[in-house]
Amino acid sequence: MAAGSVVQYSGHKYLRHRLALSIISGKPIKIGNIRSEDKNPGLRDFEISLLRLLEKVTNGTVIEISVTGTAILLKPGIIAGGPLVHDCPLSRSVGYFLEPVIMLAPFAKRPVQLTLRGITTDDHDLSADLIRTVTLPHLQLFGISEGLELRIKKRGAPPGGGGEVQFLCPIVKQVKTLNFVEPGKIKRIRGIAHAVRVNPQFSNRMIEAARSILNRYIPDIYLHSDVYKGEESGKSPGYALSLLAESTTSALFCSEVTSKPGVAPEDIALQATRAILSEISKGGCVDQKHQSLVLLMMVLGSEDVGRCRMSQPTPRTIQFLRDIRDFFGTSFKIVSVDPTKPDSSNLLYSCYGVGHVNANRDIA
Amino acid sequence: LALQRRRTRRDWMKDIYSSNLTPEEIVSQSPSSSSTTSTAGHTKEREHDDDGFFFAKKPSSSSDHPTSESPDSDSDYADKSKPTLNLSELTKWEDEDMLESIRGLFITGVDGP
User: Fold this and answer.
1) Which ranges constitute the DSSP H helices of A215-331?
2) Less packed terminus of chain A by CB within 10 Å, N or C?
3) Residue A209 CB contacts under 8 Å (≥ 6 apart), including other chains
4) Choice among A29-43, A263-277, A284-298, B53-67 with the minimum mean pLDDT
């Protein structure tokens, strides 16, 4: 919170992780040129809603939005946590709002108990299912585990939403240094097929189709048909298949495809299944969708060298690495895992942790 | 041979931390073509572009990738964590040999020779 350097960015891209980095590091952030060339310039409703949510999660945060909505200035307060409720606009799913909160929550003053209402699964952000089964286990790698939970109380498919999830996150003093370099071999595959306000048989049809490809690899496959009825099934019809594969060293890979008009449940399932094979084939210890979260926790870790083997960075990850350097001054060392094989796409990411200590924490 | 290997290996740190390439440009470079020299050349070329003549301002983030799906080019969805599935890329998994090629990554598969 020391006055001084304001970290500046231009444009609306990567807004979420930049706001999260600002709040964790305590450095003010200024973002200009937010869709200033657009026909409809400025912040969108979901971005404003996210700012409001961050205001609720923290205490003393000052947010200034320019009259045109094309520039914001955020001066971070402390991460307060505690019981919170937020209604998400239907333009984005709860995952959009939850992802930056997951980055902050372990460093709060009090454990976060956040209830979010809105769409629980869509094509743009991690769904409630993936966050529960894949994102949260990634936090466990860093010693954030006791009491970490996401409850899916009601499902809400787009466009009507009507879903509700509750995120519970413990607080930590400091995150553990990661040393995750053995990808292991895939030992089990799990899946969740859910269908709301459509024929419940759709779940089983998706499961059958996914098994037609997956059964060849390993016997330990359990695809669960998750049924939500009545009030709990939200306001709109929809279905989706989420898959996750776990290796002998607990590396996780995931994929998910949601229903689209005019596409049969079998085809949705086949797409999800092929997507997870594609993710598995990339190798490494961390799924591509979770690179940023793992890298962030590595930087915040104790003052020691953290190492993780991953596949090539996605564009989001590349920008995240650059932004981490802006906030924490830390660069990662990124080298090929096996220099004798130039075609190996796996990389070893290592960095020296900044030793971030949760100064907000209530000493009980 | 060792020299050749060194050249084809890619310097991610240099691309990420000391080039002006956009993240999308870095990723779209194929690993083999990314020897450090070509990267530097590319960077220079781009800087030149930026400093040079006027260009029609491209409104959307994904203007570099005209083939990408429409939801991505919609600037409202620029900040999304679930990448749009590349359905044509996934069709390779319809091939039996392709499916067999990753068997070694599962516990039931045997290690290669």
Assistant:
1) 265-282, 291-300, 315-328
2) C
3) A265, A266, A267, A269, A270, A273
4) B53-67
Would the CB atoms of A35 and B75 count as touching at under 8 Å? yes
Nearest CA in chain B to A337: B9
Report the 10 Å Cβ neighbour count for B88. 8
Contact A91 B76 (CB under 8 A): yes
Task: Transcribe chain B into DSSP letters.
Answer: -HHHHHHHS--HHHHHHS----HHHHHHS-GGG--HHHHHHHHHHHHHHHHSS--PPP-STTTT-TTS-HHHHSGGGSS-SSPPP-HHHHGGGGSHHHHHHTGGGBTTSPPP-
Q: What is the pLDDT of residues A319-329, one digit of tens each?
A: 999 999 999 99
- pLDDT-derived band at A341 (thresholds 50, 70, 90) equals low
CA dihedral A276, A294, B21, A74 (to 10 degrees): 120
The confidence band for A343, taking pLDDT boundaries of 50, 70 and 90, is: low
Taking the complete model, does pTM exceed 0.80, yes or no? yes
Supply the ipTM of this predicted assembly.
Answer: 0.86
Is the model's pLDDT at A257 over the cut of 80? yes
Q: Do A185 and B80 touch (CB under 8 A)?
A: no
